[in-house]
């Protein structure tokens, strides 16, 4: 799942070498923390959060067969 996030985000940003995805598991909840370059933060979030919402939708669809909840946190 981290590879999926990294693949999506690196195609959006200008500084793909600064994309870092970390995974935390608490019970049945997987939390992915995404850190990008400060200049690329707006590109990952998008206007009114549309790109971030689209990334989360893809994650929910990919994790639906694992019976776990997935969260994506975009760190500053």
Automatic annotation (TrEMBL):
A single GO molecular function term of this UniProt record: RNA binding
Cell wall biogenesis/degradation found in the keyword field: yes
Pfam families (alphabetical): KH_KhpA-B
Subcellular location: Cytoplasm
A cellular component annotation (GO) from this entry: cytoplasm
Domain of life: Bacteria
Broad class of where this protein is predominantly found: cytoplasm
GO biological process: cell wall organization; peptidoglycan biosynthetic process; regulation of cell shape
Gene3D superfamilies, per the entry: 3.30.300.20
Entry keywords, A to Z: Cell shape, Cell wall biogenesis/degradation, Chaperone, Cytoplasm, RNA-binding
Subunit structure, interactors included: Forms a complex with KhpB.
Protein family: Belongs to the KhpA RNA-binding protein family.
Summary of the function given for this chain in its UniProt record: A probable RNA chaperone. Forms a complex with KhpB which binds to cellular RNA and controls its expression. Plays a role in peptidoglycan (PG) homeostasis and cell length regulation.
Protein name: RNA-binding protein KhpA
């Amino acid at each position: 799942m981290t590879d999926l996030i990294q693949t999506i985000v690196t195609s959006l940003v200008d500084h793909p070498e600064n994309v870092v995805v970390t995974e935390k598991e608490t019970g049945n909840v997987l939390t992915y923390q995404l850190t990008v370059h400060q200049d690329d933060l707006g590109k990952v979030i998008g206007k009114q959060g549309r790109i971030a919402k689209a990334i989360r939708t893809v994650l929910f669809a990919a994790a639906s067969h694992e019976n776990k909840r997935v969260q994506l946190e975009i760190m500053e």
